[in-house]
Request: fold
Amino acid sequence: MAATGSKPAGLGWLAIVRIGLVQASIGALVMLPTTVLNRLMVVEYALLAAIPAGLVAWHYAVQLTRPLWGHGSDKGRKRTPWILGGIATLAGGMLLASHATLMMATTFGVGLALAVVAYTLIGIGVGMGGTSALALLASGVAPQRRAAAAATTWIMMVAGIVTSAITVGALLKPFSPDRLIEVASGLAFVTVGFTALATFRLEQGHVVFEETRKSEPAPDFRAALAEIWSEAAARRFTVFIFVSMIAFSMQDLILEPFAGLVFGMDPGASTQLGGQHQGGILIGMIIAGVGGSAFKGKLSSNLRLWIIGGCLLSALALAALAFAAMVGPGWPIGANVFVLGFGNGVFAVAAIGSMMGLAGAGAKTREGIRMGVWGASQAIAFGTGGLLGAVGVDIARRAMGQDGPAFQIIFTIEAVLFVAAAVLAIRATSAASASSMAQRETTRKQEVFA
Reply:
């Protein structure tokens, strides 16, 4: 196609922001079942904390289906129907989860069964909509914009979570079951509406994945998966994503308990500490997004440095937290946590930017299923990492009889995992660079002889 006609323009900044609105809708919809409903189950209904934790972990496990949704969008003519279908499924799952939670107060068994169905739909919706949106970015955004595009969409997703939390929190006062359903219904209506508007004619005028489809039909799912896994770059990047995201998520459920048990912080102070961590993540995302796109360097000399730098800075901050676990009050815990968030943000955006670049860098372009494989790896790592961190601290506290040394062990393990992730990133991006060069040479030869 490149030899026979002018190449269509890639997705511009307006289109990137519109895809970011999809990510914001995903964040807004996921917020309610993972925070508000979690609190209702544990506080108002006095259920075991393991119940909502298990439901959240289940929605991550369901996202192992991401490669299927990515493969489906690869075979289709457009990705936007998959995005809309995913958001609609997610919104329906969120509404069902709200009803199921309320039912647990009177008919626990039925409510729990419905909740399992609801969180299954939530996992499917996130996987279908999120994978297709990222695949659209991967196939339609120019390489020099990918880091900034990743930063934009992630920042908008975080903004969606924050905006939804503030708005829903205000609308739920005073709380009542009827008000919960009304607010959840309004949230579903608004987010699906925003997604429909954001994706309206989004792909019009942009041929984002026609080259492969015109030259050959898309293979079946197993063949496509085997084809991708046979590539060293894709295989190594999958392992990198898994290890790095376990390290990234291990402190999620233990940071605030650490602040309370070791530093004696009250709930308000520990919540503010979590806010400092999130603030560091956002600033890290912005800087990596701008820096990763400021220079038209190759992946090996640009985004690779941001990934490695983010991983090593995160490891250093976690090593400092391990030391803080022994020092206790007096340690600049706020600054320490901010630096951890900053390193996490830099690494996360650079990794997503690299992921989008690698999605089309193989011998054959299968952006959807590639993003699905990496999204599934990320989802299962998130669920595993949070669980390992919490369970690890519980076991260590019981075995050692002390809080500080228990947290020190977990933070040290996280630091080591981030160092390992940096090493894996070097190997993964080196393989990706070699694959990309080979693919460009093949394309050049095809154009010469066309």
Summary: Residues 1-8, 207-215, 294-300, 440-450 have pLDDT under 50 and may be disordered. Residues 403-449 form the longest helix (47 residues).
